[in-house]
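JOB MANIFEST
job_type = single_chain_structure
chain_count = 1
residues = 183
[input]
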Amino acid sequence: MTEEDQPKSESELAEVEDIETLKKDLAEVKAKAESNLAGWQRAQADFTNYRQRTEQEKEEAIKYANSLLVLTLLPVLDDLERAFASAPSRLAKLGWVDGIRLIERKLRATLEAQGLSPITALGEPFDPYRHEAIRQDKGHEGMVIEEVQKGYTFHDRVIRPSRVVVGNGEKETERSDAPVQAN
């Protein structure tokens, strides 16, 4: 019999068992460490995404912060446009009317510099995201044939849709100003 074939002593058997237990414990600790590392990496990625999302929300809040103020000034622009459209031509040559026109242009330019843009409506296809139909009338179907109130976007976001009349597909009949003769 060789040394290897001889039964091992109790201390040797205990030593082998300790080594096996240590190997098993080491494998468990390694698995737990890998799990903790993966969890930490997920938490790091989640935090990075959260930080980017909050930064983007903050930038949008700053970008659109003045939209309420701009929206409250739009009726003033509407009133000025209506006043100039209905002003008699004899008043158009007066100096103070020119001054008010300059004020209107300056207000419009200031609002446009802040991000306000008018929505093009007349002659365009009806778009429910940019236009609000108030009625239908004779004209090309689905096309805007009249703009009742101008709409605006603020940094590419609609803050007031254009109020429009949309064609219903019926052809317009030409009106004749000549009186109809009765026989």
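[summary]
The beta strands are 116-118, 131-137, 144-149, 152-154, 157-160, 162-167.
Residues 11-63 form one domain.
exit_status = 0
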